[in-house]
Design brief:
By secondary structure, this protein is mainly alpha-helical. It has helices at about 20-35, 45-65, 80-105, 115-140, 140-165, 180-195, 215, 225-255, 260-280, 290-310, 320-345, 355-380; strands spanning about 205-210, 220-225. Strands 1-2 form a two-stranded antiparallel sheet.
Length: about 400
């Protein structure tokens, strides 16, 4: 294999699913849908279709939905209802493809480690996309959208890190997991299309104490509680809770194995990412036209960090192959670090937070991410076609 990468023996382990997935979605929805697909359809093609659908929803968001604003007062500045419905449709298609590609692999006996890397690598990117389009459909402020984005990153990374440390794949709790999150995103987009995002700003409780000023972007002591800022606050709170639970369980198991340092070391890149990303979102102001590119840039850097973790679970870490992903990860973190230093006035005159510069850095990091991801897949798959079924020769 190119780069002398040595793959570990591949054994499929089904993730711990939620009650809704195991009792309803998997047996009655996804099992029925996968039977529609022809046997010659490669499961990786389904994964690719899912990524294209999710990316299309982000493109619609970028082109037709209003920019993220400083306050949530202007809820009348919305897109045509059809764009919200289209976002819901494309995200629903992603959800279907994401939940049927593994079933198609087992159905056609084409399960592979490369396919699992492809699937989980796509999930890293879609976690960013889902948080951005959800924030746009809720018409959250830029700061709230940033909080939602980091919440999605935290939950996704901690689940993968928990998998690496413990060997157990888990995508959430028994009653709240990634499946419920996907359905929530679809429902929120449909609601925004049918009734307008203003429905999420209807006041539930008025003049409540406001201890978390960042949630409302208000310096007033009272806060009007709406569905939008309630979802934002509870999501961030759940992200914090899930992080502490995963940290406790993972380090406890790592201590029993005598692998505490390995667990801590694999967590460092994400800790650096959260530190620099948090500064970029919390310090200074961001130009209106640079807000969406900054969210996408941050999400792309996270995808690189998350992909590095996934690759480390399948490829020998002392190879040139893994070093390339370390380099890509380092480049992304340096970009966020330079932005953070400029916002803290340590660096001056570089204009790293201007719309033009942020857009260019976003395009650069996207190119680096997709190049390293594609190289990982083709190399790890041993040069075999990723999206075409291999013909079986009989003697």
């Amino acid at each position: 294999m190119a780069g002398d990468g040595k793959s570990k023996a591949y054994v499929y382990r089904a993730p711990n699913g939620s009650w809704l997935y195991e009792k309803v979605l998997s047996p009655y929805v996804y099992n029925a849908i996968v039977k529609i697909f022809p046997m010659w359809l490669h499961p990786n093609a389904l994964t690719l279709c899912g990524f294209i659908c999710a990316s299309t929803s982000l493109v619609i968001n970028s082109l037709f939905l209003p920019k993220f604003e400083d306050t949530d007062a202007n809820v009348k500045n919305v897109a045509h209802w059809s764009f919200y419905v289209l976002i819901a449709i494309f995200h629903a298609l992603y959800t279907i493809f994401d939940n049927t590609d593994g079933k198609q692999a087992r159905r056609t006996k084409t399960s592979s480690a490369a396919g699992e890397i492809f699937d989980h690598g796509v999930d890293q990117s879609v976690s960013s996309i889902a948080m951005i389009i959800t924030s746009a459909c809720l018409k959250l402020t830029y700061t709230q959208a940033a909080g939602m984005l980091l919440f999605g990153h935290t939950c996704t990374f901690m689940n993968n890190w928990y998998h690496k440390v413990t060997g157990v794949m888990s995508w959430g709790g028994r009653y709240l997991s990634v499946d419920e999150a996907c359905l929530a995103t679809i429902g929120i987009a449909v609601g925004a299309g049918l009734y307008g995002p203003k429905i999420y700003h209807s006041v539930i409780l008025a003049d409540m104490p406001n201890p978390l000023f960042f949630i409302s972007l208000s310096e007033e002591s009272d806060l009007d509680i709406s569905f939008g800022n309630t979802l934002c606050a509870t999501s961030i709170a759940y992200g914090i809770y899930d992080t502490f639970v995963k940290l406790w369980l993972s380090f406890s198991i790592a201590a029993d194995k005598g692998e505490v340092w390995n667990a801590f070391y694999s967590l460092l890149p994400f800790a650096y990412f959260m530190f620099f990303a948090g500064i970029n979102f919390c310090v200074g102001t961001t130009e209106e036209d640079a807000r969406l590119p900054q969210l996408v840039l941050t999400g792309t850097v996270y995808s690189i960090v998350g992909l590095r973790l996934i690759i480390s679970m399948s490829i020998a870490q002392n190879t040139l192959f893994f070093m390339q992903h370390n380099l890509a990860c380092a480049m992304g973190l340096v970009v966020l670090m330079l932005q953070a230093l400029e916002r803290l006035d340590v660096l001056q005159g570089m204009a790293l937070s201007s719309t033009d510069t942020v857009t260019k850095m976003m395009c650069l990091m996207l190119a680096i991410h997709f190049t390293t991801f594609a190289y990982a897949l083709t190399t790890y798959n041993g040069g075999k076609p990723l999206f075409v079924m291999q013909k079986k020769h009989t003697s």
